């Protein structure tokens, strides 16, 4: 039996898929992803590979309206992170602001996505070693947060999420591994170095770090409330204090619930597509598919009231075709992520791509959305190749 499944571990595919999904939803202007807009992305070496995909992604009329309202104020001037100090090239800044006046045109939205992604440079630091230092400090804070977890916390789930966060850093795979290996086990909250994180130019990164701390708390404790939450203490470490800290914790918790529920939904649908593809193609080892699906499910983000989320995904349908069709009507962007992730579980194979393409069209997807999802597989493949688990020790 020919092995058509990718050799990449299913958890790496799942993590890489979530990084892509977060990048796309942040780019389209979904407010739940606001604290990630200045952080997420692929390494600069891979920008050319993903720019066309992102341009496609945000090029639709519906997403254009969302993005337009989120990135512009009532006078149609650019707001949010586009006004902040994220561009290193003044000429590109002026071009982008001018183009912002005509964002109503879908083609311009595509160009804006490329320009934003390229000009932002995913926190384009002046010096490479400065960038490494900032992400090293960010990772050290997150690792320490897990280390100081209370007895009974799900540390394995926390570490799995930490791996996913680290692999979303805009660094090379070897740099990510170097950061992982550089943790000082003797660090505590009073001795850990946060000087680079507190730099005035790193506001975007502190916002993302605050969100990631909230994410880790949810992985560690799920619905339980720890006897002593470390979040206020760690928020204070990055200069988020008092009432402001309480408000941001509440906002981040709410945003996490939205994001995790969406991710749980599309990942589950993707596994259904993979299973159905294997059933339809005798040359695919169904047992291996089921094994991979089971492993991948263990790396889903924790979602509150998980069973209710799963029930809402099914939405009364019992077949993957019915589920996909129902969700696609309400949220085509989510289904594109599902299809991209399903495709990424297979090696590069024209027969498989054509099979899934035809399947999805027969289930009600527009071919252009399927084509975008196929491009999304390439983005996930790129992320997988840049995962530090692929670096030999």
| Mean pLDDT over the full residue set | 78
Percent strand: under 5%
- Molecular shape: elongated
Sketch the major β-sheet: none
Total helical segments: 17
What structural category do the secondary elements indicate?
mainly alpha
Helical proportion? Answer: 55-70%
How far apart, in Å, are the first and last alpha carbons? 32 Å
Gyration radius (Cα, Å) is: 21 Å
Q: Assembly state here?
A: single chain
Outline the low-pLDDT stretches: 41-47, 60-73, 75-123
Strand/helix succession = HHHHHHHHHHHHHHHHH
Strands, total number: 0
Structural write-up:
The protein is mostly helical and 393 residues long. Among the domains are: 44-121, no CATH class; 128-256. It has 17 helices and no strands. It has helices at 10-27, 47-57, 61-71, 90-100, 106-120, 128-147, 155-166, 173-181, 203-221, 231-237, 242-280, 286-297, 306-314, 320-330, 332-344, 350-362, 367-385. Helix 2 (47-57) packs antiparallel against helix 17. It is elongated, with a radius of gyration of 21 Å. The two termini are 32 Å apart.
Write a compact overview of the structure shown.
The chain has 17 helices and no strands. With 393 residues, the chain is mostly helical.
